[in-house]
């Protein structure tokens, strides 16, 4: 199973290494949402990493 998205005009692909099953599709949705947050909130993530 793969996730594909575009960001700032570039296409990206992330291989999850999982077979396509309903539970894995749910996991892929969660990963996609996490990636979306990482792209939209990079400054927040950087601050969290600095505090760790």
Fold and architecture overview:
- The termini are far apart.
- The protein has two helices and two strands.
- It is globular.
- A two-stranded antiparallel sheet has the order 1-2.
- The mean pLDDT is 83.
- The protein has 52 residues and is an alpha+beta fold.
- Strand 1 and strand 2 form a beta hairpin.
- The protein has one domain.
Main features:
52 residues; alpha+beta; two-stranded antiparallel sheet; 2 helices; 56% helix
Mean pLDDT across every amino acid position: 83
Helix content: 55-70%
Tell me the radius of gyration: 13 Å
For the termini, the CA-CA separation is 32 Å
Poorly predicted residue ranges: none
Q: Total number of helical segments?
A: 2
The main β sheet shows up as: 2 strands, antiparallel
Order of helices and strands: EEHH
Q: Quick summary of this structure?
A:
This protein has 52 residues and is of the alpha+beta class. The chain has one domain. The chain has two helices and two strands, in the order ββαα.
Helix/strand layout:
Blueprint: E1 2-7, E2 10-15, H1 22-40, H2 42-51
Antiparallel strand pairs: 1-2
